[in-house]
Amino acid sequence: MKNFMAFLTMIFCIYTYAYIFKEETAILLLFMFMTAFLLSIISILIPLRKLSISFKIPEGEVEKKENLNVDVHIKNNSFLPIPRLDIIFLTASNLKELSSTHLRLSLGPMQAKTVSMGYMSKTRGKVYLGIDTIVVRDYLNFIKMEPLKNIEESDYRKTLLIIPRIYYKDENFNSKGLTEDTGYLDGRFTYIVEPGYELRDFVGGDSLQKIHWKLSAKKGKLMVRKDEYIADLRPCIVVDFILPQKNIIIEENILEAVLATAWGLAKQGKELEVWLFEGSNWNMYYINDRQGVVELQRIFGEYEFMSAKKWIEIERLPISHMKRQNLNLSDREFVVFTGWHDDELSKIMGACRQKKIAIDMVLLEGDEI
Prior knowledge:
- It is a single chain.
- Strands 12-11-21-20-15-17-18 form a 7-stranded mixed sheet, with helices on both faces. Strands 2, 4, 6, 8, 9 and 10 form a 6-stranded mixed sheet that branches.
- It is an alpha+beta fold.
- α1 packs antiparallel against α2 and α5 runs antiparallel to α6.
- Helix content is about 30%, strand content about 30%.
- It has 8 helices and 21 strands.
C-alpha cells in the first residue's frame, strides 16, 4: 500500500509539472509510468491463472523427536515469469523449525521448483502442519495475490498427532525411584547395587516394588535382585495427573516412563493395568502385549495433566473408585508415576499401606530426556 501511494504521489507531481510547464518530456515520462503500472498488473495476472501448486505434508501420527518435511511443488505454466513468490509455513509450540518458515523465490517461464521446510517433533499433542499462506506479488509490488484461496484448506494443512516415544532398548528415561527399602535413587543412571546382591531379569510374577528403576532404565530392561521372591500380584500403574504447575518436560517423562515400564512388563508376558484420570473419571486400560502398549501411546498423545490450582476435590488415586467398582485391591500392587511428591500424595499412600495395599511410587524429574 505504501508503494502504491508513493507511486500515485509521483504521478501527481509529474502531471502537475507537465500541466504547468507544458513539458513534453514530463508527459512522456507520465505515459511510461502508467504503462509500467498496467504491464506489472497484467504480467502477474496471466501467470497466476496458470500457476500449479501441490503439497506433500505428513499426517496421522508421529513419535516425538522425529524429523518431518513439508514439501511444496510449484510450477509456472505461463510464458511470463513470476517475479516474487512468498511461502510462509505454519509453526507450532511442539514443533522445532529446522530452517526459516518464510521462503521467497521467483519462477521463470515454464519453470518448476520444489521447496521443503524441515521440522522436528518436540512434545506430544495435536498440531496443524502445512502452509500458512502463499503470496504472489507483481514487479512493482503494488498488488498481492493469494493462490491458496482457490485451493481446499485440507490440501495444504494437515492434522498431525505427536505421540510419546516408546523406549524399547538401550534408551533412557530420567527417573527418581522411591520405595520403603531404598529411598531416593539420586543421580543420572548411576545407581550402584549393594555389595553381595546379584541382579536378574524381571520375570512374570516379580513385584514391581522390587524393580531397580534407574538401573533398569540404564540397561534397557527391567531388573530385580536374584533373591527377591516372586509374588502373584497384578501390576497396576497409576499416572498421577496433578502437577504444581504446567511442566511439559515432567509430563513427557512421566508418560514415557509409563510406556517403557509397560513395554518391559508386556515383553515378559505380564498382564497389567494402567489407570488414567480422563475428563472427570478414572479409566483403566488392560495391557498384555505390544499392541496394548501402542494403543496406550496413542492415548498419551492427547493426554492432559491438571495443575494443582485446578485440582478441587478430585480423587488423586483410583483406590476409592476401585472399591466402588468392587475390585479386589489385595491381589494388585500399585506403582504411582508422579512428578509431584507432596504431603497429600504421601498421606494417601500411607493410608493404603496401613490397609495392607501394596503401593509404591516413581518420581520423575524435569530434566530433558
